[in-house]
């Protein structure tokens, strides 16, 4: 029984290589499974493809399994790129190391954003798709189910996933939610249409924000953003009017000077009164003058530096948990390998048991024929007694097999048992 | 359980308070279990103590003495605390509420424990109806004060949350405060509910005092009554301002809640302690009953 993973991830390969090796759509992935199954018909296979990693897990009964080179050639042929373009970035792990690798990936210890929760869902999806393509077997089923359990254990027993680590999630989760009780009656104004604005909008939408206004110098980009999130677009010259309506302002322009100065915002506050307003300045250089935050107590202004401080703190807290997570992963890897090795002795153990129990049945039948005067109760006592003798005799060799499985499949003992007790395959 | 003393639950609540402070150092399951365990044990002891007192005086705790009345208020606060903590164990309410509970119990310790002369004396307590009115008076006051206590705690929570947000600090691990919007809404309602209850309670007390004869009648020149009147006027002033002000001034509402209800609670406790001491010095410890001039106001603030 053998297990291998061939992979490239953000540690080993630049994004240009990962993009080339990725399986970008479900159809693409299905084609990959068809080709893999044709090339390696006796192997169990699971493909995990995300923006940060491309991994192929292969398991095989016996010693033969797809080699690192063979899988590299599969990537090369499937994506139509020369092996030399990526071979150095494509790594491989086998046996226990492959199990540990998957457990680390599923537990998010190996993720770019440590402790992020998305990866376990991606592992679950990869496993589901492999099952749908009939690419899984006993080993990959056990392995992936265990990986999902290990991920759960790491999440509950450590603080690896606690605390937000992205600027947008900290802005909304730690600060905006501390100000507003609800978001469905709040007006969100997005100034600029950058990626950060989009990410912040995602978190605000999750909290229930419905009224979204986008103001951008380029109307085309503003319309795209507004369309994605169900917002309205207003021209740049109506920015002040939009600011008066807004409860939450997210600014991500590329302006070189602050677009929202103290004087400008004072004028706006005179019109709006001192309602609570959350200003999120995600521009670099800053879009909102810091003096705006001092106009009154109901203005809550945050810029990237303010939020990064919280992100850093949370990242450090998560890093401190890596050691605990690794200890769990080591324990689970060792347990999994032990079970795997012990499983390899299963057929021999089963045959040995059934052989001895057949002898028991035969001898008891012979004895009961001779002693026909025995009552039903006497027979039962004798049956139980002989059963116990057999179990006690079997216990030491089976226990030794189990103990030997800790350090790999006990091939020597299995062969000896087969020879000693005439167990045939 | 007959031997339960004030010290038993005061110590339990003190441990709960210490565990609340230790929560600031980080999330701990042991801390949470110990904290809830001691709060629960304290409430059980507190309940037995009030029950025993009620059996001894043959009166409900709200009527027997100011000592018991304050303990009922502290008991209500702790039950609320335990309920909220069980509902949301991350909520940082204990840091604000438990010190007040400890002050209330400490104050109760200083007050006389003898049953109120007004409601135990056969000569004075003529009719059962009178005891019913006294009970209504005490209940309205204790509920009103509990509402005021909640407003005070919410006011402190608002300022703490506001300060955190303005200073751009992240919340301590395992400690959450509700949003400013939610605290402000709850604060507004607790003031709007508690002030009418307190006013009604005081009105019933005044009515009771005026309806008694001779020495037991209410004297409007009694300094205690004047002080209560001033506290009530402050509270009503705040109440009117609250109803007429714009809702965006949440921070001022929170600050004024703190000032008003702190003033009210401190007035009640200090006046009761002073009048209790005066009563002891005037009548001697053996006969230290509530002065009749203060009427039922003395039995319950």
Q: Could you describe the 3D structure shown?
A:
The complex is a heterodimer of chains A (425) and B (301). Chain A is of the alpha/beta class. Chain A folds into three domains: 2-162, Glutamyl-tRNA reductase, N-terminal domain (Beta Polymerase, domain 2, 2-Layer Sandwich), CATH 3.30.460.30; 167-307, NAD(P)-binding Rossmann-like Domain (Rossmann fold); 338-420, no CATH class. Chain A has 15 helices and ten strands. Chain A has helices at 15-21, 26-39, 68-79, 95-106, 118-132, 138-157, 167-179, 195-206, 219-229, 239-245, 262-272, 304-320, 322-370, 376-404, 411-420, and strands at residues 2-9, 44-49, 53-60, 91-94, 187-191, 211-215, 232-234, 248-251, 277-281, 299-303. Chain A has a six-stranded parallel sheet, with helices on both faces. Chain A has a four-stranded antiparallel sheet with strand order 2-3-1-4, with helices on both faces. In chain A, helix 4 (95-106) crosses helix 6 and helix 10 (239-245) crosses helix 11. Chain A is elongated, with a radius of gyration of 32 Å. Chain B has 301 residues and is mainly α. Chain B has one domain (6-299). Chain B contains eleven helices and no strands. In chain B, helix 1 (6-22) runs antiparallel to helix 5 (94-110), helix 7 (128-166) packs across helix 10 (250-283) and helix 9 runs antiparallel to helix 10 (250-283). Chain B starts with 5 loop residues before the first helix and ends with a helix. Residues 285-301 of chain B have low confidence and may be disordered. Chains A and B meet through helix 7 and helix 12 of A and helix 7 and helix 8 of B.
Topology, please?
The complex is a heterodimer of chains A (425) and B (301).
Chain A: E1 2-9, H1 15-21, H2 26-39, E2 44-49, E3 53-60, H3 68-79, E4 91-94, H4 95-106, H5 118-132, H6 138-157, H7 167-179, E5 187-191, H8 195-206, E6 211-215, H9 219-229, E7 232-234, H10 239-245, E8 248-251, H11 262-272, E9 277-281, E10 299-303, H12 304-320, H13 322-370, H14 376-404, H15 411-420
Parallel strand pairs in A: 5-6, 5-8, 6-7, 8-9, 9-10
Antiparallel strand pairs in A: 1-3, 1-4, 2-3
Helix pairs in contact in A: 4-6, 4-13, 5-6, 6-13, 7-8, 7-12, 10-11, 13-14
Chain B: H1 6-22, H2 29-57, H3 61-64, H4 66-87, H5 94-110, H6 117-120, H7 128-166, H8 180-211, H9 223-244, H10 250-283, H11 296-299
Helix pairs in contact in B: 1-2, 1-5, 2-4, 4-5, 4-7, 7-8, 7-10, 8-9, 8-10, 9-10
